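Changelog-adjacent note: as of this version, every example in the card shows the full chain rather than a window. The one below runs 490 residues end to end.
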Amino acid sequence: MTVHYQDTSTCMATSSCSEAPGQLPQDVYETVLPRWRSAIRNVILKAVECESPVLARMQNRFRNPWLDVYFLYTSSLGTHTFFMIALPILFFFGYHDLGRGLIFVLASGIYFSSFIKDLVCAPRPFSPPLTRLTIGTHHLEYGFPSTHSTNSVSLALFIFGHIHRAYTENSAMSDLAYCGSCVALVIYVISIVFGRLYLGMHSATDCIVGVALGAGVWGAYVMVCDTMEGLLSSSSWTVPCTIVPVCLLLVHFHPQPVDDCPCFEDAIAIISVTLGAFVARWHSVYAGVDDRLLQTVMPGGHGADWTFGEKLHWCLIACLKVNVGIIIIFIWRLLAKSVLHLVLPPLFRALALCFDLPNRRFYTPATDYAHVPTENGLHPIPSVIDLPSAWEVSGVYAEDTRGGSVKRRGRGTTTKQDLLGKGMADVTEHPDCQSKELENGKGTAHPGAEVKHYDADVLTKVVVYAGIAFFAVEGVPVLFSLMGWGIKPW
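Full-length structure tokens:
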């Protein structure tokens, strides 16, 4: 892990092109976005302009190395990566209802916050005057609203609901444990939400809307959870025939951003996970697997008294389950990705002869490339279920890219050529915003340009992440049950 701090004395706040999305020249957004989207963006942009110097003064007053470390690493507890590592383990140990509820809450929060980000295309607080600290590549997304705030609030309320039920209805918690759990949840939410301000990653407006969105997601879950579980527990074919097209439509109708923002990839991943998990639940009931194989208990002691040998045996089985389950998921991901990258491009080219295929800006259609390079598409370790391959802590100043300490997304950026490719003319040319990687609005590469997005990646991710969820929810637990390792811990 590398820590970078850059000199802000040479940063030019008036530069028109920067690393951060949402900071292209204003006329670009006014040209590309519909009037109503541009109007919303202008409101958020004014809030960012007003709040950036205020947040900078707050940083100057409160920043110290200890708080930098604390807020940087607690921010990882609000990422998709953290949540997606924990989700398969819940299903490996029989907490199916809890896992499905968590998937619904997180998927709704991540999808709708990503949807709004790409819809509004609003920048993060400006640096300078702010110092922006981040782990990974979150600074490459738009700022409004804060997905971290959404996730932390919805998760905290979700967990609080279960804790409160256990305390009031089942008397399964002491007063001390209940109060301690509530305090821990409050500290968690404050650490995440205030941390986004402290780290210069979000404005107060971003966080307030993110908090409201998280509370709304949890409220929606409370209203529909019983109905949702009832439908998924039925054996009617209406369930998959509804879930599959709805999830695919959510992917298809995700707004197209002006900048090359990774929000769409987050949306693909989490919607596909939801698709796979919910279909797996339906299939386990339809095939009778739920009653026969998903209710078995792990080997160990019986009752309250366990011998040391029984405890050791249980711990060994638990470790094996986690490791074997994750390895199976990795193998599926690698095999599925390789096969789909071989099959999908020629299939898309054949279909393109019959009708026009949908395509997103920054994504190259299969008719314009022979194959998907190995280094593109999904990484060998999925970004949303595993730790990033390289965690870098960066002090990011939006207008100062000297020294290369800020990781670039490495993909095409919006230029005048992009807009003209969409039939949008009369855009003021800004030479300092010319990109080394140019694409037109349909994703067609210009001669000599390097293109990093491919249309095959979209469907590949849908299948891969849906398959990961299917294996985690049904496939792997069934295997554990057949091997005699059991599902439920006791």
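Structural remarks: Residues 222 and 276 are 22 Å apart (CA to CA).
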